[in-house]
Amino acid sequence: MALINEKVSLPHFSKRESEPNVIVLHSCYSKFSPNFFCYKSIISYLNEQKLSYHFLISRSGQIFELVDPDYKAWHAGESFFPELNINNLNDSSIGISLIATETSGYSYPQTVALYNLLRSLFSLYPIRAITSHAHIAPQRKSDPWNFDWQELKRVFKSEKVLIVP
Prior knowledge:
Layout: E1 6-7, E2 13-15, E3 22-28, H1 39-49, E4 55-57, E5 63-65, E6 71-73, E7 80-81, E8 86-87, E9 93-99, H2 108-124, E10 129-132, H3 133-136, H4 149-155, E11 162-164
Parallel strand pairs: 1-5, 3-9, 3-10, 4-9, 10-11
Antiparallel strand pairs: 2-6, 4-5, 7-8
């Protein structure tokens, strides 16, 4: 995928039984670094916790591939997407995390990178829906924080994809 700035392979993934058809959006930041937006600290933390996303998007719009989307990353945990009646979304989803705090919002380059990545994934996989970590695991999660779902719907209104915040 030409959009990827760097591949940083995390070992926390497993074999997929079918193609992904949902994209789950996340937010993350480095709570343990003086620079909350340090992608290296975030990747180190994910590795320590045995977690992974497929993609991580930095504040400058760099896209890091952490797990090939043909494999199952460990990003959603116990989860359920009622609109498509899907349990355990790690099995059927692609996890994308945007580096942001609860209050920082998202940078313009980051949003552009996300939209370009989504377009690319739509062309490669039978994506049926985009949703939030908060929607599929509401008792545990609240991210992505302050994400502009209306803008996402506007940008992708011509796509045949369900968008559920």
